[in-house]
From TrEMBL:
Domain of life: Bacteria
GO cellular component: cytoplasm
GO biological process: gluconeogenesis
One MF term in the entry's GO annotations: pyruvate carboxylase activity
Signal sequence range: none
Protein's recorded name: Carboxyltransferase
UniProt KW keywords: Transferase
Protein's UniProt keywords contain Transferase: yes
InterPro entries, A to Z: Aldolase_TIM (IPR013785), Carboxylase_cons_dom (IPR003379), PCB-like (IPR055268), PYR_CT (IPR000891)
Length: 486
């Protein structure tokens, strides 16, 4: 029997997978102190994508909201995620900007990081780990799992050996974005990872896209994993991670121990379920086993993007063709792991191939950069014919002649016209027009109006069918009158 620790993903991967990163601070603040008191080893809270989405689409000040959330959870280490060579952009960010991003997150109270690079750029990963250690932060080096002929057990064991050898790495995080790991592969994969980790704790994060991750978690515990990533029930499952409530019960039934206060699960779940429904976001998801997912390995959050892109071209009936094309493009591009940015690059190329009717007739700049090695060495060679088409595309020469710049901090401050480091990160990441709108929107709200009730649901239905210019609803506790414009 083992003592199992839990890392909470409710406010990061849960809301990233189900709410598209649109969880504002006020949506979490009413219950974040409860999550803090639950007994989690760590709370995963933030990342570069949230800075982008909150600023551009929610007009919320990222730094102000982060400060409020950090202040509300003083007892538990708070984590941020880092793609080792970029922040927000699908291209490559200056190293000085990445280093500053880590330092500013630490200054705002983050004390734990998970750092990844799908192509395992060790120089960048370990440099950022060292920067995090300047603030005594915990560093989890992520091993992004993917199924392919070249992603062997030995391949992963060697990556773990290099990462675990660094004194700046505290734990190894096995991260399965597509949720494809099951017992048979875990039994051959985990012994090499455990041996290579050299006694450092092993965390496991797997999205439940195939509905099999809860079982994989239990199998992984038997094989040496000691930290499981879970989320509150309404923010779990489907493209998110398994539910804390379910996994804690499973762990107990298997005779393992934990430190969580289970009495706090329900009020947290009730809150996020109510907020999600009021905001029109997904809650209480599930997924069925779909073997085709193993071929394309699309992260769950991308499926909605695909459908939206196809709808723009009146081609929603082609989603099956797109997924088949994703599997083909991934194979041709040397089996990149399907996590940011490569899940997006493979997905966008697949959509372009289907929409234009010409495979690799249109090639995004980032795919050219990938083929040229700007992101690092590919896991397997790119198909020679496909490489010729990419390098012969309309934009290829200009992209190759203009590799991503790498200015130092002083140059960045001069370029963006500010000495304020938080402002610099915003300006280097988000268009100024969006920053101006965010600033004009005023302070961060500390709550979220739960505009949902049986009466309002009935009113929504009435407004969809009513032809009269005025609709009025009265009940014992509510009088509501709505008038149509014009």
């Amino acid at each position: 029997m083992a003592h199992i620790e839990f890392l909470d993903e409710t406010m990061r991967d849960g809301q990233q997978s189900l709410w598209g990163l649109r969880m504002r601070a006020g949506m979490a603040l009413p219950v974040s102190p409860l999550i803090d008191r639950t007994g989690f080893r760590t709370i995963d809270l933030t990342g570069g994508g949230m800075l982008d989405v909150l600023t551009r689409y929610c007009q919320e000040n990222y730094w102000e909201g982060l400060d409020l959330l950090v202040a509300s959870m003083p007892n538990t280490p708070l984590r941020a995620g880092l793609r080792a060579n970029a922040n927000v952009t699908f291209s490559v960010s200056p190293r000085a900007l990445m280093d500053l991003w880590v330092r500013r997150l630490c200054a705002h109270g983050v004390r734990s990081f998970w750092i990844y690079d799908v192509l395992f750029g060790f120089d960048n990963m370990l440099r950022l780990a060292k920067v995090a250690k300047e603030s005594d932060a915990w560093v989890a080096a992520a091993v992004m799992f993917a199924l392919s002929p070249v992603h062997t057990d030995a391949y992963y064991a060697e990556k773990v050996r290099v990462l675990a050898a660094s004194p700046d790495v505290d734990s190894i995080l096995l991260y399965d974005t597509a949720g494809v790991l099951e017992k048979e592969r875990l039994q051959t994969l985990m012994p090499g990872i455990v041996a290579a980790a050299n006694g450092k704790p092993i965390e496991f994060h797997a999205n439940n896209l195939l509905g099999q991750t809860a079982k994989a978690y239990l199998d992984a515990v038997d094989l040496g994993v000691s930290v499981l990533h879970t989320a509150s029930k309404p923010m779990a499952n489907g493209p998110s991670v398994p539910a804390t409530e379910t996994m804690v019960r499973n762990i107990e039934l298997k005779g393992h121990t934990h430190n969580l206060d289970t009495s706090l699960f329900q009020p947290v779940a009730d809150h996020f379920r109510a907020v999600g429904k009021a905001a029109g976001f997904l809650v209480d998801q599930y997924a069925e086993y779909d073997i085709f997912s193993i071929e394309h390995q699309i992260p769950g959050g991308m499926m909605g993007t695909f459908k939206a892109q196809l709808a723009m071209h009146n081609m929603t009936d082609r989603i099956g063709d797109v997924l088949a094309e994703v599997a083909a493009v991934r194979r041709e591009l040397g089996y990149p792991g399907m996590a940011t940015p490569f899940s997006q690059l493979v997905g966008i190329q697949a959509v372009l191939n289907i929409v234009t009717g010409q495979r690799y007739g249109t090639v995004p700049d980032e795919v050219v950069q990938y083929a040229a090695g700007f992101y690092g060495d590919t896991v397997a060679p790119i198909d020679a014919n496909v490489l010729d088409r990419i390098m012969g595309s309309a934009r290829a020469k200009e992209v190759l002649d203009n590799p991503p710049p790498d200015p130092d901090l002083a140059e960045l401050m001069k370029q963006y016209g500010t000495q304020d480091e938080d402002e610099l990160i915003l300006r280097a990441t988000v268009p100024q027009a969006d920053i101006d709108k965010m600033l004009a929107a005023g302070p961060v709200r500390r709550d979220y109006p739960l505009l949902s009730s049986p009466e309002l649901e009935q009113m929504r239905k009435l407004m969809q069918v009513a032809t009269m210019p005025v609709v009025e609803l009265k009940s014992a506790g509510l009088t509501l009158s709505l008038r149509r414009d014009g």
